[in-house]
């Protein structure tokens, strides 16, 4: 390459295949967006000093983060280099497609009982389960004297497309695969308007399962008052912004709701304070829905340490303050339609980037340069060519193991073969330059980083920005998720925590001996978690301290 040999001032376009131990890439953090979007992600990353990928100036693999709204193909996961990350885990369709979600929840309910898996309305997949649906429809009609209400949703559409509600089976007409669910006809209302919650969940890892829920979210309102007498009025029964922003009352004042159709979660917390409920228990039940839903696919998702997943859980609360799962959204919308969107989503994206543990200079790529012969990283927009030199290892001070930030020492440099094809080069890089991002390099001091306990277990940070770690939440769930996922133990711990919140007991549980419970509490002293949801999330240990 003429550029790499110092014979040209043009940006290098020859990523990868050089002789004489030469590798040319830009060292600055680079993001790549599929189909030029979403715009909010571009805005946040550019404000942080990232550069956008330009295939005319950069090599095919010269990027750090690839973001797209649709799934990546298997080869893109297989060919990831150590410093590259994707915004999707593979094989999450098991919860993000409505029919797959229904099957997986039914499977878990059959395997582990309905005591925990009682948060999804009765669901049938049509046309394959039409006979079962008809039997249930007739059973309810005979028992109640009238039929129940049902909602129909196409299995693979979003934004409220194709959804309708009916009471009489003669109104059931469909021309594609759909799910049909018992319609929750007694929703909690605010000023007579129906609403649901959009909860933003980041799955940092499926193996081991590591889950964060964002403190801020959205409350999405219908824009016409709720009435069962008008089942065909979508502005009364659906909360999708893509529908309601075109409603006739979108811009008018609507009681406590106000103008538009969204609140922030912070505003919803103020509303809850006026209600006579156990607020902490409500948040924990929503938290349980997230964890229990993710458990349905956790064992089947391949290990992908270079990936994260942002999901949108839609939760409806009924008049008895019971939360229900409506659906799980793949690539939740990041468009800014109102001030609530601006308040929530920009911080959300920023916290998600922080959760990926990036730094202003990517340590992995720096080491890749030095291993391949550069004294300093070469930036594509730099006017001069890099200077070739022998690799000189510099000793770095080893940080304290308990330190919040530390810089990893350079790895020993193996001898790179003089000639390699592209596949051989990638394999060489993965073997000799790879360190998982869980180890990380130097990180911003304001971000709590992962640490390792005395027994070698990896402990993810309890909070990053407004992302609260909700799983694992204690020593038992950490251990149960480290190697092969122990779902039975996880379910027992979820039940145990929820039962303690219900009863308010802090000394012992009927299902476990006092000594065992106290031993677990002692073990959790160096592994604490926050209870997600309240304005100021309390530590679990503080909630259950004995007096």
From TrEMBL:
A GO biological-process term: microtubule cytoskeleton organization
PANTHER family on file: TUBULIN POLYGLUTAMYLASE, TUBULIN POLYGLUTAMYLASE TTLL2-RELATED
An annotated GO cellular component: ciliary basal body
Pfam families given in the database record: TTL
Domain of life: Eukaryota
Molecular function, one GO term: tubulin binding
Name of this protein: Tubulin tyrosine ligase-like family, member 2
Record-linked Gene3D superfamilies: ATP-grasp fold, B domain
Keywords: ATP-binding, Ligase, Nucleotide-binding
């Amino acid at each position: 390459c003429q550029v790499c040999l110092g014979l040209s001032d043009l940006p290098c376009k020859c990523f990868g295949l050089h002789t004489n131990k030469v590798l040319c890439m830009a060292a600055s953090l680079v993001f790549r967006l599929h189909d030029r979007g979403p715009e909010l992600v571009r805005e946040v990353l550019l404000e942080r000093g990232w550069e956008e990928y330009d295939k005319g100036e950069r090599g095919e693999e010269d990027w750090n983060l690839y973001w797209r709204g649709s799934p990546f193909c298997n080869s893109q996961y297989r060919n990831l280099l150590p410093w590259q990350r994707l915004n999707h885990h593979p094989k999450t369709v098991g919860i993000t497609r409505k029919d797959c979600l229904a099957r997986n929840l039914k499977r878990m309910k059959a395997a582990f009982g309905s005591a925990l898996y009682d948060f999804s309305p009765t669901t049938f997949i049509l046309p394959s389960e039409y006979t079962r649906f008809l039997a249930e429809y007739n059973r309810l009609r005979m028992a109640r004297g009238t039929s129940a209400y049902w909602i129909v949703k196409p299995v693979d559409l979003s934004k409220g497309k194709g959804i309708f509600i009916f009471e009489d089976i003669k109104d059931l007409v469909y021309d594609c695969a759909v799910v049909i669910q018992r319609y929750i006809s007694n929703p909690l209302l605010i000023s007579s308007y129906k609403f649901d919650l959009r909860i933003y969940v980041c799955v940092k890892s499926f193996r081991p399962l590591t889950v964060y829920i964002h403190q801020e979210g959205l409350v999405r309102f219908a824009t016409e008052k709720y009435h069962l007498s008008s089942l065909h009025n979508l502005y009364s029964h659906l909360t999708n912004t893509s529908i309601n922003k075109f409603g006739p009352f979108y811009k008018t004042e609507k009681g406590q709701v106000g103008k538009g159709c969204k609140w922030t979660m912070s505003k919803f917390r103020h509303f809850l304070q006026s209600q006579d409920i156990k607020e902490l228990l409500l948040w924990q039940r929503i938290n349980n829905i997230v964890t229990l839903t993710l458990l349905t696919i956790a064992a089947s998702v391949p290990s992908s340490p270079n990936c994260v997943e942002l999901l949108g859980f839609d939760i409806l609360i009924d008049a008895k303050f019971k939360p229900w799962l409506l659906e799980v959204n793949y690539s939740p919308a990041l468009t800014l339609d109102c001030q609530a969107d601006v308040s929530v989503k920009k911080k959300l994206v920023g916290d998600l980037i922080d959760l990926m543990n990036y730094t202003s200079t990517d340590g992995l790529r720096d080491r890749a340069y030095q291993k391949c012969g550069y004294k300093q990283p070469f930036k594509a927009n730099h006017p001069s060519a890099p200077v070739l030199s022998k690799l000189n290892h510099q000793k770095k001070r080893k940080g304290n193991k308990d330190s919040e930030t530390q810089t990893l020492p350079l790895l020993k440099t193996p001898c790179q073969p003089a000639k390699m094809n592209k596949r051989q080069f990638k394999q060489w890089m993965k073997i000799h330059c790879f360190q998982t991002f869980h180890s990380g390099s130097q990180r911003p001091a304001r971000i709590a980083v992962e640490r390792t306990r005395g027994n070698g277990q990896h402990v993810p940070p309890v909070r990053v920005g407004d992302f609260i770690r909700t799983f694992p939440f204690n020593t038992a769930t950490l251990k149960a998720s480290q190697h092969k996922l122990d779902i039975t133990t996880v379910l027992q711990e979820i039940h145990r925590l929820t039962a303690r919140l219900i009863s308010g007991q802090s000394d012992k549980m009927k299902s476990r001996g006092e000594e065992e419970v106290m031993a677990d509490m002692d073990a959790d002293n160096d592994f604490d978690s926050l209870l997600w949801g309240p304005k100021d999330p309390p530590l679990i240990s503080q909630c259950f301290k004995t007096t």
